[in-house]
Amino acid sequence: VQTGVDTTGSPFVAFKFNGTAATSLQQFSAQNIGKPMAIVLDNKVQSVAVIRDTLPGSGQITTRSVADRDQIYNVLKYGSLPVSFDVQSSRSVSPTLGTASINSSQIAGIVGLLAVAIFMLVYYRLPGLLADVALLIYTLISFALYRAIPITLTLAGIAGFILSIGLAVDANVLIFSRIKDELRHGLPLATAVERGFDHAWPSIRDANASTLITSLILYYFGSSFGVSIIKGFALTLALGILLSLFTAVVITRTFLRSVVATGRFRDPWLFAIERSQPVTGTTQPLSEV
Q: What top-level class would CATH report for the domain 2-78?
């Protein structure tokens, strides 16, 4: 919708329709040349103009005064809002700015992922290495789901993904800390692994459940008010929570059980405890836990 003044000095409003609306306007105007056409909004006639010619998807309404022109312009441009808008300032932003922001966020996510992986490896050693592999699997599954659903990775979506990585690491930290405590109490390695997971599970479950509920609430409000940026954040966060539970409780646990079953990893250093505290094998049956 645009305004202007024609060669005779009369103010006018120019408009253009797209798609099926343009086709409908052309057909209607061709059948009603010389007849009046009303602009109706909220069941009220806002203006009446006479059709002078066939309108091929666009047209021009000539008015008697600038005030009438502006009134029609506001109706066509802004709908039922009973106020007019004045442009105070405008600014053009290059589309490369958004691309640069996305690229920077992706780099930040990769750096954060590497930092977390290094921390887990240094602090928890063998369990940390297994957690890093599980975290890599988590990342691959996440991106596969983003493509399959599909989910567009906006800045908010990337933030939700990075936050979900933190939750996945938090679950592993709780599990490995419990395993270390059980080993310090002299339990066999297999028993310590099972007890570590069992004792850490209530905390992991409650923390992730509360965060999942929060993400669902955010998604609901984002959908209700049409705020897509909140929806993107909530969706990636909720999906990340479910995947982090799967990787921490299923994949990491399977890796640890497989390592324990080999009977080759009994050095206390591998589990980040003092060498004076030996790590025994699997002599204690799991049924006694």
A: alpha beta
